[in-house]
Specification:
single chain; alpha/beta; Rossmann fold; UDP-galactose 4-epimerase, domain 1; two-stranded parallel sheet; globular; binds uridine-5'-diphosphate-4-deoxy-4-fluoro-alpha-D-galactose
Length: 340
């Protein structure tokens, strides 16, 4: 049984990936500093998989602690690195925090991964690296545009750091997965998204409004050059996204990679407008959502959806769930945590 380290493994995407790894028979070790997650997520994972992953509460910026960790886990065969700060607005206000949290920890990780017998590394990247792409759908060859925020920049620089390290060390094999918009929850409703404070992202804001925690959703902008005037995104079910990590890892473990640094878009290939997401919610919850139009949000792009051809044909992965399925699971999870 191969041992896999998942950093940030109690977070939204991390926890769903831990479930899929355990389902595929991997032994999982989680590192998480609990800065944006809760230890109770372990119970959810254990209840779904009937297997408790090893968990170490650890801040990856603590070099000595990380060194100690790798000494006692030198048999790790692969690392999936989620641990990072991810609030776009906060990154604009406090860029150094983001560069320190997201880049220093990535550098330490890569150093330790290089010291392992098997140096397999999966990186959480983002479609944010494309900015407002010139053509849709977005392929992996679309140019990387100047980042809109320090957060986005950490993803671009992170990919560059990995690319350079792979060039210098053929031993290192890495895949960067460029996520589009992850939403939804595990169908069991035992794990899901747990935003701290007022949600910044659309779907948790919608489900919290549906649950009565927020009065009304502000739809940012109704005058975009799209069919209904609202922005278009590619919303991917978090379980589909989690499975992409397992498949990417298996590609590296089985030496199936074409080069030692590869990038893949992880999306559905379908673009949905904000109003379409609202209507999907209304459909699964059989209630109408209280929303109003508000001015555009700074930094938002008009449209982003993935060309998934490379992930489909090269990685052998495709998204299975529809927007309806994803909204249904998000709503079930919201109802569960609010005791509705
Ligand atoms: N939106 C609203 N009202 C809200 C929240 C969002 O109308 O209360 C709209 C946004 O304007 C946007 C769409 O819903 O059109 C999606 O917004 P999200 O905040 O959910 O997602 P983003 O596409 O802005 O963010 C995603 C990732 C980030 C990443 C960013 C880069 O979640 O991690 O893409 O573009 F940085």
């Amino acid at each position: 049984m191969k041992k896999i380290l998942v950093t940030g493994g109690l977070g939204f995407i991390g926890s769903h990936t831990v479930v899929e790894l355990q389902n595929e028979g991997f032994e999982v070790v989680i590192i998480d500093d609990l800065s944006n997650s809760s230890e109770s997520v372990l119970e959810g994972i254990t209840s779904i998989t009937h297997k408790k992953p090893i968990f170490e509460k650890l801040d990856l910026k603590n070099k000595a602690a990380v060194a100690h960790f790798f000494k006692s886990h030198s048999d790790i065969s692969g690392v999936i690195h989620f641990a990072a700060s991810k609030a776009v607005g906060e990154s604009v206000e406090n860029p150094l925090l983001y560069y320190e949290n997201n880049l220093n920890t990535l550098i330490y990780m890569l150093k330790y991964v290089l010291g392992l017998q098997e140096s397999n590394f999966i990186f959480s990247s983002s479609c944010t690296v494309y900015g407002q792409a010139d053509t849709m759908p977005i392929t992996e060859n679309a140019p990387v545009k100047p980042a809109e925020s320090p957060y986005g920049n950490t993803k671009q620089i992170g990919e560059e750091i990995i690319r350079d390290t792979c060039k210098a060390n053929q031993k290192l094999k890495a895949i960067a997965l460029r996520y589009f918009n992850p939403i939804g929850a595990h169908p069991s409703a035992k794990i899901g998204e747990l935003p701290i404070g007022v949600p910044q992202n659309l779907v948790p804001y919608i489900t919290q409004t549906g649950a009565g925690l927020r009065e009304s959703l502000s739809v940012f902008g109704d005058d975009y050059p799209t069919n209904d005037g609202t922005c278009i995104r590619d919303y991917i079910h978090v379980v589909d996204l989690a499975k992409a990590h397992v498949i990417a890892l298996q590609r590296l473990l089985n030496n199936k990679n074409d080069t030692n640094f590869e990038t893949f878009n992880v999306g559905t290939g379908v673009g949905s407008s904000v109003l379409e997401v609202i209507h999907a919610f209304e459909n699964v919850s059989s209630q109408s959502l209280n929303y109003k139009f508000a001015p555009r949000r700074e930094g938002d792009i008009t449209s982003a959806y993935a060309d998934t051809e490379k992930a489909n044909s090269v990685l052998g992965w495709e998204a299975k769930s529809s927007l309806h399925d994803a909204m249904d699971s998000a709503w079930k999870w919201e109802q569960k945590i609010r005791n509705l």
